[in-house]
């Protein structure tokens, strides 16, 4: 089975099944796209993306009998942009409020990239809101990665994979260099962090460019990194890491992305941890949506009650 074959996105067919909505947390307004019927499942995207990164995954999950909600985090996608609130505690509280609006029962959370930072904080800070947690291809700031069996990358590959962590947290310089060059920057990320760059085509890139060029969006996105690597946030993550997550957790990695690193960083912190390695680049939801959903389906079958 070819898990990386990409069928062009049919927006007309998609929006016959899914629709946009907003949720007011009291502090900010979150945009989301939702559809399907059944138990709710929340999808959380990463940077520099939006709910749109889940466009191939959402119909597959809805076909499996789930109500699917793909949310834009504060300051990203079409959610409100503000000047503060980009620490993981506040972001997790945003999601906890959204989850609470869905009913009293905890929900399944599936997250990618920076969305995994926030969703890990959600599971730690608001455990009653999360039933099962699936995190994909992320390095969570403040969680050390023990040595594993993955081969060490070359210095060039290591730089290509992680340079933006240091760059994004610098004060002001990223705004100076990137303003007016957002398209070139996004093209570089999508060309270099995918195994198949055609998985994110020209039309898709225009959508990501649109949301990243909104007033204040660049600084908001960079604030995720600036907050995450602050001394306060690193201490908070260290405190979270002292607790053991008792809910089922799936750590998914891209073979041409973070590999097993997320699993390694979580293995001493989760009571019921599973791992999945998917043959693709970093942008798993778009490069290998079928493989991602298959990994989720197996995970949920093994832990049907959370």
TrEMBL record:
Q: Which UniProt keywords apply?
A: Hydrolase
| InterPro entries per the UniProt record, alphabetical | AB_hydrolase_1, AB_hydrolase_fold, Epox_hydrolase-like
Locate the AB hydrolase-1 domain: which residues? 40-146
Specify the domain of life of the species encoding this protein: Bacteria
**What Pfam families does the database record attribute to this sequence?**
Abhydrolase_1
The UniProt GO MF terms for this protein read:
hydrolase activity
Q: What is this protein called?
A: Putative hydrolase
- Species of provenance: Tatumella ptyseos ATCC 33301
